[in-house]
From TrEMBL:
Residues 410-439 are annotated as: Disordered. This is Uncharacterized protein. It comes from Lasiosphaeria ovina. The lineage of its organism: Eukaryota, Fungi, Dikarya, Ascomycota, Pezizomycotina. GO terms for molecular function: nucleic acid binding. It comes from the Eukaryota. Gene3D superfamilies: Ribonuclease H-like superfamily/Ribonuclease H (3.30.420.10). Residues 410-422 have a biased composition (Basic residues).
Length: 439
């Protein structure tokens, strides 16, 4: 299967080789390769796509009601191949991505597993009105759900362009001069990005622009290529899984979940296939997106260099010195308490640290081995003081030192009170109650 692009696309070969690498949603295992293998040079069409600077030439339809959206989607499922003299190509797509919150903390510039599904009806193949073509695409380098949703939309246009070029003779024989391409998606954010055109979306991060903008350009460029072939493109919003074909697309998009634990080294991006022959849009754009994300990473590192440890303010030094003095010579008398130091900027307030300190003190006072706990607190305070001397003092360390100092003093007071046969003071600070003893 081969074709040639129009002048707007630079007369580049814009077809895809036969057979496809994904048939009815089943990827060919022999096309897979181990992760880490360097892919071949990029597809030259990708460079043409990224030069796109026009606006989307088609139409975006977002019905006012959910019922209306379902009606249009159901009508597309049951519509004949030719409507009003125009061939109708209907596509349903959906995306899926692994949530970073489900795993360990990761680098935001590193991709995760994801995929997208495409369900389409292919005319002229005598498949019947109820038989549709299903494709599932996978990747281990997804950066957001919009990444996969947008890749699915671009994949629909890529497939439509391949169909128009392959069956051009068939269309002429049937006197069909126009083609209507309908793409149904549940991603309103993707439709908004396409509507805004090539410009980056306001309020979005640089990383979002880095991995979504290349696909937006691809969608716009493919739309213009279809428009040059007398094919009109229209995007429709449809509620998630509200019709059968979109439910199938949703299932195909999440197929990567079924074997995510089978072999973590499998790379679904067709890296063993020459870049020019890859069918998956996400695989074709991988090098381009990786370069954009890496540039974004470098800009982020340049804007946020590692901050040197700031010098401790005078109040922090005074608090640390007071804590050291209290550790060396803790007296049960109330006047032995040094004046509390004011916390530096960014340190927790007294109301925030007091409950934690009070809870520690209450738990230690009720312990049977209070002396051992006091020794442990003194050792911990000593370690924090060493960190202070080495210049690693921060707001959290200072707050912990203050809480430990107060806890140690209260524990020593409680021990002294027991020796004097007095009940230990309660957390509210009320004076101890004396026992009535015989004279």
């Amino acid at each position: 299967m081969s074709s040639h692009m129009d002048s707007d696309m630079g007369n580049l070969d814009d077809g895809c080789v036969s057979p496809p690498y994904f048939i009815d949603g089943n990827p060919l295992p022999e096309r897979w390769s181990l992760r880490g293998q360097e892919p071949e040079s990029g597809d030259p069409r990708v460079a043409v796509w990224q030069l796109e600077n026009r606006q989307f030439p088609g139409c975006i339809t977002v019905p006012e009601t959910t019922a209306a959206a379902k009606f249009y989607a159901r009508e597309a499922q049951m519509a004949p191949d030719v409507v009003a003299g125009a061939l109708r190509l209907s596509y349903f797509t959906d995306g899926s991505v692994e949530s970073p919150l489900q795993g360990e903390a990761r680098d935001k510039f590193a991709g995760v597993r994801g995929g997208y599904g495409v369900v389409s009806k292919i005319p002229f193949l005598n498949m019947g009105a109820d038989e549709w073509h299903e494709e599932a695409f996978f990747t281990d380098n997804a950066f957001s759900i919009d990444h996969m949703e947008m890749a699915g939309i671009a994949q629909c246009l890529r497939n439509a362009l391949d169909f128009v070029d392959e069956f051009r003779a068939e269309l002429s024989a049937r006197n069909i001069e126009a083609v209507k391409v309908d793409v149904f998606t549940d991603s309103t954010s993707s439709l908004e990005a396409i509507k805004n055109g090539i410009q980056p979306r306001l309020g979005k991060t640089d990383l979002y622009t880095a991995h979504v903008l290349p696909i937006v350009k691809t969608v716009v460029c493919l739309s213009h290529a279809l428009h040059a072939r007398n094919s009109n493109v229209e995007f429709h919003w449809v509620p998630r899984c509200s019709v059968l074909k979109h439910e199938r697309a949703d299932a195909l998009a999440g197929r990567w979940k079924s074997d995510k634990n089978a072999n973590v080294n499998i790379d679904y991006d067709e890296s063993s296939v020459p870049a020019v022959d890859r069918k998956s849009i996400s695989a074709k754009l991988r090098i381009c997106i990786d370069d954009a994300v890496e540039a974004c990473r470098q800009r982020s590192a340049a804007q946020d260099p590692p901050q040197a440890q700031p010098k401790a303010p005078a109040t922090a030094v005074a608090a640390a010195a007071a804590a050291g003095q209290a550790t060396a010579n803790i007296k049960p008398a109330p006047n032995a308490l040094p004046a509390p130091a004011s916390a530096p900027v960014g340190a927790p307030s007294a109301s925030a640290t007091a409950p934690a300190a009070a809870g520690v003190a209450a738990g230690d006072s009720c312990s049977q081995n209070g002396a051992a706990r006091v020794d442990y607190r003194i050792e911990e305070l000593g370690r924090l003081q060493e960190r202070f001397r080495s210049g690693n003092l921060n707001a959290a360390t200072l707050a912990r030192m203050t809480a430990l100092r107060e806890t140690i003093i209260k524990q020593r007071r409680a021990q002294a009170a027991k020796k004097r046969k007095l009940s230990p003071p309660d957390n509210g600070g009320s004076p101890p109650k004396k026992r009535h003893c015989r004279q």
